[in-house]
Design brief:
Blueprint lengths: L9 E6 L3 H12 L8 E4 L18 E5 H9 L4 H6 L5 E3 L1 E6 L13 E5 L9 E5 H13 L4 E3 L3 E7 L4 E5 L4 E9 L6 H6 L3 E17 L6 E7 L2 E7 L4 E9 H9 L2 H11 L7 E4 L3 E10 L3 E2 L2 E3 L5 E2 L7 H17 L8 H28 L5 H16 L3 H9 L17
């Protein structure tokens, strides 16, 4: 490929074809303003292997909230088809959140819980719970129908940069350059490291246990989350009555849960949930992964920007990780649609850095406040949390506003989230 500095091979190279990188590629192809741009996607595993029919859902799922769903539907993603084609995607109609009642002496259980319902924001559902790999497969199929160039090999390193482009070396030794390099290569991003962007990492010294479950009663498309002393345990609805479990707990407890015999594990989980959604009758093999928060100190470098996990990885407490990555991709698409003359210029990279770091920091600050609130032990703390949760649940002003913000339905999100075109 041409490596001259005057005529870059591409206007934009996206390094990484996971959810965030694939959404960016599909969105750039979708808008008339950005369609003339020459775009490449570096993804060794493109197209993603088709997920064969499974006896139970895959362990990695994402809760995509209403704004993300609206945006992806504009890009041709049919969520209704996910569950009809051998997948296990499910609408998310409501969320029920409560606290371990043993921590709340003197408070009635109904006072220490809150329910969010789609009807409160005038929606049919709050979002969808989808298997990650099936979502990536569908996005890859969408990209296959475009003129985007797919490079089916890993990138090795950034080898040069000048005023108009950045050059990277591929695994086979060839080089390719572009006006803008987008790092969508995950939390261990090689592009971020080679660009010299530092990170802030906080280890929570916990693990998240994940599994697919069956309940004695149908989940009714409700997500359940209970706060325990060591962290939250959540059940997300999936098709055919399955649920996806995410249980945040200590390292020692996670290891114990992972090794328990099936019957003993099902019993402990049922007790942890107060048998509230229903008694657990079946569970898949269990896995766990470490919990940490990692933030890039900058989301942009010389003709480079970070999106998705390359920019931020957060606690699964509120299920915002995939939604933040999708918002990164669509916010960048909006900026690029208005600056097609120089996609990697500072007018784009600096503004993207300011906007997306500020937005991610807002979510993270709220999440950390909530996480620390539930780590505050004692009777007084329990009373305050219980009363606060009860007041919020009954508030006809604050509750819908909070829900709309979390669902990505406010003006601070990219126009795609509101069903609008940015160009």
């Amino acid at each position: 490929m041409n490596s001259g500095v005057n005529e870059p091979d591409f206007d934009i190279i996206i390094c990484g074809g996971g959810v965030a990188g694939s959404v960016l590629a599909a969105a750039l192809d979708d808008l008339p303003a950005t369609q003339p741009l020459k775009i490449a996607l570096i993804e060794p595993h493109f197209p993603a292997n088709n997920v064969s029919d499974r006896e139970y859902p895959e362990l990695r799922v994402s809760a995509l909230f209403s704004g993300s769903i609206t945006a992806l539907e504009q890009l041709g993603i049919d969520f209704q088809a996910f569950s009809s084609n051998g997948g296990y995607a499910s609408p998310l109609a409501a969320m029920h959140v409560w606290e371990d009642h043993s921590l709340l002496p003197g408070i009635q259980p109904t006072q220490a819980s809150i329910q969010f319902d789609a009807a409160e924001i005038g929606k049919a559902q709050l979002g969808w719970v989808v298997e990650n790999q099936r979502l990536i497969n569908t996005l890859h199929s969408r990209i296959n129908d475009t003129k985007i160039t797919v490079l089916n090999q890993p990138s090795r390193r950034i080898v040069a940069g000048n005023k108009v482009s950045t050059t990277i070396e591929m695994a086979d030794g060839t080089t390719v350059n572009s006006r803008l390099l987008v790092a969508a290569d995950g939390s261990n991003s090689a592009i971020r490291q080679q660009t010299g962007i530092d990170i802030e990492r906080v280890d929570y010294h916990q693990r998240a246990l994940v599994a697919s479950l069956k309940l004695a009663d149908h989940h009714r498309q409700i997500a359940w989350q209970k706060f325990l002393a060591d962290g939250p345990v959540a059940l997300l609805p999936l098709a055919e009555g399955y649920c996806s479990l995410v249980w945040s707990t200590t390292v020692e407890h996670a290891e114990t849960l992972e090794s328990l015999p099936l019957e003993a594990f099902n019993q402990e989980l049922s007790e942890a949930l107060d048998a509230k959604p229903a008694v657990v009758t079946w569970s898949s093999p269990r896995r766990s992964f470490p919990l940490f928060r990692q933030l890039a100190l900058r989301y942009a470098g010389h003709r480079t920007v970070l999106i998705g996990d390359a920019a931020h990885r957060i606690h699964p407490l509120a299920g915002m990780g995939a939604n933040l990555g999708i918002a990164d991709a669509l916010a960048l698409t909006e900026l690029l649609a208005n600056h097609t003359d120089d996609p990697g210029g500072q007018a784009i990279t600096r503004r993207y850095d300011r906007q997306r770091r500020a937005e991610a920091n807002r979510y993270i600050a709220a999440q950390e406040l909530l996480r620390h609130c539930y780590r505050w032990n004692g009777r007084s703390a329990s009373l305050v949390r219980g009363m606060g949760m009860g007041l919020l649940d009954r508030s006809q002003l604050l509750k819908p506003e909070l829900l709309a913000y979390a669902m990505g339905l406010t003006d601070h999100q990219p126009p795609f989230f509101r069903g609008e075109r940015c160009s």
